[in-house]
Design a protein that fits this description.
32% of the residues lie in helices and 21% in strands. The chain is α/β, with parallel strands linked by helices. Helix 5 packs parallel to helix 6 and helix 9 crosses helix 14. The chain is globular, with a radius of gyration of 23 Å.
């Protein structure tokens, strides 16, 4: 029997702990043996979860990498702008990486990381978890099988729910480009751009255009009477915003009425409390917690909607539309080929396969594929999270992975589309993607 892979966690946040949980379910395949995180409480949490000795808990990736290598792989779940600085010493120390997306916040950073992985001969898998969701894997398999012929067009859409938009991209960490985080397109739709590149795997994207703006969350769009904070300052009254009771973006409605929905973002300032109460959370929102701010009084400078157009080297095209602030979240995809088409809705776990039917009285033939997996899936992203880790284990062991795992080049292609789209939007021009010499 093959012994389990030994893994260290670098950046013990929400995403890394989800990937690491594979070791709990499949201890014969993966074992967590170390952690690096600057927050003591998170190091202690991982140590308790995986019975780690104190000498295997480090405050930085550099400190971990400076030790003789004691694991096979690293699960890097640090924040976007930390990926490069934390990954380079790990690659140099001989660790293969499972690296959260987007794996860089600029094209230059991306190539630096790719070049380092190649120079040190290390395997790097990017956490494009939607590839591993049965919904997208089933669609990709039909494309590979030639069911719809040569792919002419890919159209994808993501609707970002109002509570997700306001939490992550208005009040939260991805609200300001100056803070060094990925753009909204790269942070939220890196998955979708990767799916497009994956569906056209092996065909290079040639040019990109894009348009978008912050249409809604601007100071001049604030309703009359809106205050700077939803729940006051803790001195004047419980709620000093007169419109808070009727406001769709009230911090009370988003975070007190739904205290667990975005807890890993909103309540990170309460991590020192073992079980913060609702009163603790109200006090936090009335203090300096950024999630207590009015959405129209934040200093965000990112888009709330964006559309991307892509031309591939073979003449095929693709579009992706991201719209933030919708009532219902959702992803859809529509592929058109020379022999047919596939259209599906991710949250419904079903898609249609259509073919031309020129017989009298007919127009097209349609078959609905209903995966009916959602109720039995574990984890987020349509069951993709832990399937990703399973494939990563297979790749490191030298076993054949699923169709969802490809080379790093496909991840590069999706990232290039995103970086180029943001540049095209900012500069209001078409951006050509020149091939890079290796």
């Amino acid at each position: 029997m093959t012994s389990p892979l030994k893994a260290v966690i670098v950046g013990a946040g929400h995403r890394a702990l989800i990937y690491a949980s594979y070791a709990k379910q499949y201890p014969d395949e993966l074992q967590i043996v170390g952690v690096a995180d600057p927050i003591e409480g998170r190091r202690e949490l991982v140590a308790r979860l995986y019975n780690l000795a104190p000498e295997r808990c480090y405050s930085t990736a550099d400190a971990l990498a400076a030790q003789p290598r004691f694991a096979d792989v690293a699960i890097n779940g640090t924040m976007d702008h930390q990926h490069l600085a934390t990954s380079l010493p790990l690659l140099e120390a001989g660790y293969d990486l499972l690296l959260e997306k987007p794996f860089a916040i600029s094209e230059a950073q991306m190539w630096t990381l790719v070049d380092s992985a190649r120079a040190h001969g290390r395997k790097v898998m990017i956490c494009h978890v939607l590839r591993f969701a049965p919904f997208y894997a089933a669609i990709r398999q039909r494309v590979l099988d030639g069911v719809i012929g040569d792919l002419i067009s890919v159209q994808s859409v993501e609707h970002v729910a109002y509570h997700h938009m306001s939490t992550a991209f208005v009040r939260g960490k991805w609200a300001r480009s100056i803070d060094g985080y990925a753009s909204m397109l790269m942070a939220k739709c890196c998955h979708d751009l990767d799916l497009i590149a994956w569906m056209k795997s092996g065909v290079r994207p040639r040019s990109v255009t894009s348009h978008g703006s912050n249409f809604q969350f601007r100071p001049e769009k604030a309703p009359p009477g809106a205050a700077a904070r939803c729940l006051g300052d803790g001195v004047t009254s419980l709620s000093d915003c007169p419109i808070e009771p009727d406001c769709l973006y009230s911090a009370r409605k988003h975070y007190i009425d739904h205290p667990d929905r975005w807890s890993f973002y909103v309540w990170d300032g309460l991590e020192h409390l073992e079980s913060p109460t609702l009163d603790d959370k109200i006090v936090s929102l009335r203090g300096d917690n950024p999630y207590g701010r009015c959405v129209w009084a934040c200093d965000m400078d990112v888009v709330d909607h964006q559309v991307v157009g892509i031309e591939f080297e073979d003449g095929a095209t693709a579009t992706h539309a991201m719209i933030g602030g919708t009532a219902k979240p959702g992803r859809s995809i529509h592929l058109v080929g020379t022999l047919g088409e596939i259209e599906g809705f991710f949250e419904e776990d079903r898609f249609a396969v259509r073919h031309i039917d020129p017989r009298p009285g007919h127009e097209y033939a349609e078959e609905w594929v209903d995966l009916d997996l959602r109720a039995g899936e574990e984890g987020a992203h349509g069951g993709g999270d832990l399937r990703l880790v399973a494939d990563f284990v297979r790749v490191i062991r030298g076993e054949a992975p699923s169709i969802s795992t490809t080379t790093l080049d496909d991840s590069v292609a999706g990232h290039l589309i995103g970086f180029s789209a943001d540049r095209a939007m900012q500069e209001r021009r078409l951006v050509e993607l020149a091939p890079r010499e290796r």
